[in-house]
Design a protein that fits this description.
mainly beta; 6 strands; 4-stranded antiparallel β-sheet; 1 helix
Amino acid sequence: WGTDTYTLDSNLGAAAVHAGLAKPGEVVAVRVRVIQSPPQYTASFRNGVNSNAYGNFASGAFEFVRK
């Protein structure tokens, strides 16, 4: 769920591939930052992964910390 900012219940591996930080089946280390949920999440298709739109997710969100 989301693009660049993902709901906390999103699949971390799928989100890493979606964000371009990993390829399917690849083992990588990523850093994430847990943040407050935005008002809504945007859908997109990236790197072979389709993310969905979502309204407010009260539990929070995460984003990848890039070097």
